Amino acid sequence: MEIYSVIEDKVRKGIRLSRADGVALFACQDVAWLGMLADLVRQRISGDYVYFNVNRHINLTNICTARCRFCAFGCDADSQQSYEMTKEQVLAIAAQAAQDPALRELHIVSGLHPTWPLAYYFDIIASLKAKFPHLHLKAFTAVEIHYFAKQAGITIEETLRRFKAAGVDSLPGGGAEILSDRVREQLCPNKANSEEWLAVAKAAHQMGLRSNASMLYGHVETMEERVDHLLALRELQDETDGFQTFICFPFHPKNTELNEAVRRTSLWDEMKTMAISRLLLDNFRNIKAYWVMLTLPVAQLSLGFGANDIDGTVSEEKIIHAAGGKAETSLSQAAIIRTIRETGRIPVERDSMYNIIRVLE
Ligand code: SF4
Questions:
Q1: Which of 109, 350, 108, 118 is closest to 245 using CA atoms?
Q2: Region of residue 285 (phi > 0: left; psi between -120 and 50: alpha; otherwise: beta)
Q3: What is the pLDDT of residues 119-131, one digit of tens each?
Q4: 272: closest CA among 77, 28, 55?
């Protein structure tokens, strides 16, 4: 059809795609063509390099006031599954993880705890930074920052400034879900709305804290809402250039309230969405295939659909696995390197800011 040859021409010439192009791409079922176009862009931006890092996830608590309908991780304080980590426990986990000399990053996200004071989080971050100054602390999503600020009665900027002073180096990209208030009203009305999520990301970027961006798709959103979500991220990236990478998360319905109502996304949809994200987000350098969410074979396939990053070793991921995620909870470096090499690409170990540590030619 005419529109698809126009889109291909635009991509080949490096011309930005419009909203109408994005909607047309989601209507397209020629997944091989979408992959070919996305791969062209990926090759242009990062050649044959595929990035990974050595990191450890820490989820401080699963007690959460928001209780989003799509989440199997958050729970009430009186639930049998609830847990809270003390500072000593967090430091012990970090110390154990830091025995691996290759570890470079702690990725810290949690539920929105009803009573923990902001000082508790500052103390954890400052203590981690003091004991492990070589580790990059990627901590607290825009949703958490928004919640902390509201709880403490201070501004977003002040909250971020204090976390930065305590030792936070960058922000993870979670909590964006779909940046549509229609969707958020249905699924997660008790946390930051679209505008608030974007405002936190913008404030972080303006004070030199880089962050990631994400999209949780495959629940109640329309294809137009996926496109609008991607364009909202692209617009903010034009303004701040503060996003490091984009991660798209297919929704896992198991153990969530939506289990009966929503089917797990198909591989077809996952590859289409990966490719279209690469095509629309022309100002993002990196598109991550998060193997924890996708499973390793699907993450590997994603490298042919626009992804140039496969995340890290992770260790003990809890949030996706609570919703029935089937991937391992951690991966060895050797397994990641092998997975990348099997695609004919070059594994590149990076730090959290995408500086190259080593190229494994
Ligand atoms: S997605 Fe985050 S904010 Fe929502 S219930 Fe789960 S842990 Fe809480």
A1: 350
A2: alpha
A3: 999 999 999 999 9
A4: 28
How many angstroms from the chain centroid is the CA of residue 148?
20
User: Is 287:309 a contact under the CB 8 Å cutoff?
Assistant: yes
Rg (CA), the chain: 19
Q: What is residue 274's DSSP assignment?
A: H
Give the DSSP letter of residue 259.
T
Is the Cα dihedral 240, 241, 245, 249 positive or negative? positive
Element (H, E) at 193: none
Least confidently predicted of 90-94, 239-243, 251-255, 328-332: 328-332
Residue 318 has pLDDT above 80, yes or no: no
Closest atom, ligand 1, to C-alpha of 73? 6
Q: Quick one: pLDDT at residue 356? A: 97
- Residue whose structure tokens are 């951690």: 330
Closest residue CA from atom 1 of ligand 1: 71
Local structure of 322: helix, strand or coil = helix
Q: What is the pLDDT of residues 63-114, one digit of tens each?
A: 999 999 999 999 999 999 999 999 999 999 999 999 999 999 999 999 999 9
Per DSSP, 17 falls in state P
H-assigned helices in the chain:
2-13, 19-27, 31-46, 87-97, 118-131, 142-152, 156-166, 181-187, 194-206, 223-240, 267-280, 291-294, 296-302, 319-322, 333-341
User: How many domains are there within the chain?
Assistant: 1
Closest CA to 123 of 149, 157, 99, 90: 90
Q: Which of 83, 143, 318 to mutate to test the pocket of ligand 1 (most atoms within 8 A of CB)?
A: 143
Give the number of other Cβ atoms within 10 Å of residue 158's Cβ. 13
Structural domain of 149? 2-359
The pLDDT, as a whole number, for residue 326 is: 63
For ligand 1, whether the C-beta of 73 sits within 6 Å is yes
Q: What is the CATH number of the domain that holds 63?
A: 3.20.20.70
